[in-house]
């Protein structure tokens, strides 16, 4: 296939980060007061924020347009309210996707007595001025154990429910990207085919907020013989392929690694 892969690290301590007391956050790409021209977006992928929000607080009502916005809940509970009338409490395993289209307003706040840890991800839609829509999918830990589960996929991809607010299978995104998730046990490895020319991998920082060099779960990412990299919690990497290829992820640590993998066309 003429594969010529390249793996470029995006280390956890190099991400933008801020501690606002009520919110502890990391930014993979330029966001809010963190601006880095070397990390603005990657294909249609525009935002990966890893947020921790204290109880009784959150993001008040604010507006968006022309973004695909999805939240991946790691721990705690997140209360979502929006101008389309959706009110929902999201928990671990939930994947919520809002296609903002011509415009929506929403709020995202911690629900209950424990902090919420979630990843907020934005992508750029392929078509503008679409009608806003809202979707929720749930994927259990057992479903994600030692396999890559497709949790977000392009709206025209196979097995995608385009209009159902809830249902089985991946949430439909109006962007040319697919998102996989896994809980990879120590000693286990997975190989996933990447169809696009690029990808991005992120190891969720499950062991706690840490602005220094990454610790915790460890994986080795291999794109081809001799093209490999070790990553730990909070670390990520840009993936480049000529015409797609296979990516192998191996857990080389002593604890489960929670991993998100983007296939970007």
Automatic annotation (TrEMBL):
InterPro entries registered for this protein in UniProt: Pirin (IPR012093), Pirin_N_dom (IPR003829), RmlC-like_jellyroll (IPR014710), RmlC_Cupin_sf (IPR011051)
Top-level lineage group: Eukaryota
Domain Pirin N-terminal, chain residue ranges per copy: 15-122
Family designation: Belongs to the pirin family.
PANTHER family, per the entry: QUERCETIN 2,3-DIOXYGENASE
Identification of the protein by name: RmlC-like cupin domain-containing protein
Organism, scientific name: Roridomyces roridus
